[in-house]
């Protein structure tokens, strides 16, 4: 899938469900439940046992984008791409990993927090960046960074409650990554997010 197509589908999804489970079975149950609730973008973290196999089992689903998260090594990136991940996300920025991923067709979203990291990512050609951990710093932090970096699309992730997602989207986020708190959300709760 082309990088710009993935980018547009992530923006349409608005919310990226970050799956961090103790085993493959639990992860798949969580994913099925989230898809039933209307989630259209799933990020399976590489701290979850069997992450590649989970990604592979969802790679042909038309109704959901499946990606790999917490990818911190070239080996993980290779496994994720081979498994069919449509996007790969890192918690931080590594020039080596960015270079390795530039040879793959998979859409890569590196993580940043500081202006220096954003400048490095821009120099390497990345304009969609995971802002992590966002919940700790809040919406004003993202808006302050957007001032000098208007060309960047931020995907804030980390410590954000689903009920806060609409505010982040209204503040300019391209999409928002949300983790474990999604499980307690009803389908109705999530509809408010999708209507922003």
Automatic annotation (TrEMBL):
InterPro entries membership: Aldlse_KDPG_KHG, Aldolase_TIM, KDPG/KHG_AS_2
Recorded GO MF terms: (R,S)-4-hydroxy-2-oxoglutarate aldolase activity; 2-dehydro-3-deoxy-phosphogluconate aldolase activity
PROSITE patterns in the record: ALDOLASE_KDPG_KHG_2
Signal peptide start and end residues: none
Gene3D superfamilies found in the cross-reference section: Aldolase class I
Biochemical pathway: Carbohydrate acid metabolism
Name of the protein described by the UniProt record: Bifunctional 4-hydroxy-2-oxoglutarate aldolase/2-dehydro-3-deoxy-phosphogluconate aldolase
